[in-house]
Amino acid sequence: MAKPSLAYLFTAFVFLSVSTSSAQPPNPPLSDTFLSCLTQHANSSTPHSNIVFDNTNPNFTTVLPNYIARLNTPLTPKPLLIVTVLQESHVQATVICAKSTNVQLRIRSGGHDYEGLSYVSQNPFILLDMFNLHRITVDVKNEVAMGQASATLGEVYYRIWDSSKVHGFPASVCPIVAVGGHISGGGYGNMLRKYGLSVDNVIDAQIVDVKGNLLNRQTMGDDLFWAIRGGRVASFGVVVLFTIKIVPVPETVTFFRVDKTLEENATDLWQQVAPTTDDRLFMRLLLAPSGKTVRASVMALFLGEANEVLPILEKEFPLLGLKKVNCTEAHWIDSVAWFNDDQGSKNGAKPETLLNANPREGLEIIWKKMIELGEMGLVFNPYRGKMAQIPSDATPFPHRKGNLFKARYSVSWKDPSPAAAQNFLNQTRELHSCMTPYVSKNPRSAFLNYRDLDIGVNSFGKNSFQEVYGAKYFNDNLQRLVKVKTAVDPENFFRNEQSIPGFVVMTDRYR
Predict the structure, then answer these.
(1) For the domain bounded by 253-330+344-438, which CATH number is listed?
(2) What is the distance between the terminal CA atoms of the chain, rounded to a whole angstrom?
């Protein structure tokens, strides 16, 4: 094709110059458009300019703290706007206005997504920050509590304990994790063998759907209520509040930590006992390299007194060598604070701080790999008990009967350089690969709250989800989640790199 002539270029220039007087005015900044929309749709007397921040606002960088160090870099994509909602109507209006401006929405309650998907996107996005929605109410008489999305689990535990010394809630040992993300991804903790997961104890919820409607269990329907309890609400809407069933705990519980080395063989018996013992007993195994060996630490909670658990373990787990001097008897809330202490020290923090294949052969291979790598840690959490009694399709979380343990791979480092980050991530991947012969297969299962983009990402329009990571998180529950997604969010507005797609997205590649 011939290049345009000079005369053509000159003519075009003159035409544009003459037409400027009648040209359309430039589009207003996104912040102005969004504020106008928010004012129209939010039923609130709060000046909306007080809750919307763009990158010219001096408070922008303080409102946007990144919780994961490796994602806190100048190259980390930042939102176009941050909306720090104060009430439900702000959430509703934010969804409506983000959709009307055709800008992607990311929703942050606690910000503890391991891959940062709650506050990072490679596409232009608005961050809906739920930080101010952290109200908690407890009704001991009816054994229920309500927690807004950004209430931390530590705050929930404390408020329950403040109302009753004989109630608790089965959720994470990490008290700074928020209700919204933890519960909607499944949620587990030290009482899972007695009471199941957090989602097994959810009795109602409030969410905002893609149309900006505020729904509860009755108005959202059974399918959507099923989906948000383990399928991640962020694929379907914005969770505002969960209503949970609080559970009875003894006035006195027992917790302890016993350290062994691999030469002492305690882990051999632990893997036989931990998932089969009394369902009041939860024994978590932590493995960490220690010189030329591996230190194995058993941290445990027993829902009862020391005199009850000692004879159980003397019979079932004599190699542990548990003595009464190793045990601490206290309120359940003290066990929560103790487990949150990385060292499991006997003098745990005060409750107020919560406000702030061949098994033997496989373990030997894992130990050798951990010693070789030098920095990696493994945590094994035993299942069975109540977990084995709940059907795999009761909630989207499918890993129930037939599973003995869940393993978590972890590594931490202080060197801020990209090279160090890559080195330690590679170590994690190497240990994960080493475990392959000894874990679930076809597919190798994964826990949604341990988010990992290595196992696959959504390519929006290609079927990567179903083939790569969807089945790993949800097994046979995947198709029902896709069906729910198609019904409630057919245009796939609520999406991220590992969200649930609708049927249109799932089948696009076959057209």
Answers:
(1) 3.40.462.20
(2) 34
SS (H, E, C) 212-242: CCEECHHHHCHHHHHHCCCCCHHHCCEEEEE
pLDDT tens for 385-442 read 999 999 999 999 999 988 888 888 888 787 888 888 888 888 888 888 888 888 888 7
- CA quadruple 478, 483, 489, 494: dihedral, nearest 10: 0
Active site residues: 450
Query: In this structure, are residues 126 and 107 in contact, taking their beta carbons and an 8 Å threshold?
Result: no
pLDDT digits (tens, 9 = 90+) for 276-333: 999 999 999 988 887 778 888 999 999 999 999 999 999 999 999 999 999 999 999 9
The Cα–Cα gap between 138 and 193 comes to 24
pLDDT of res. 471: 85
Q: Which amino acid is at 258?
A: V
Q: What is the CATH number of domain 30-129?
A: 3.30.43.10
Domain with CATH 3.30.465.10 in the chain: 136-248
Predicted confidence (pLDDT) at residue 464 exceeds the cutoff of 50? no
Residue type, 412: S
Burial environment of residue 393 by CB neighbours within 10 A (0 to 12, 13 to 18, 19 or more): middle
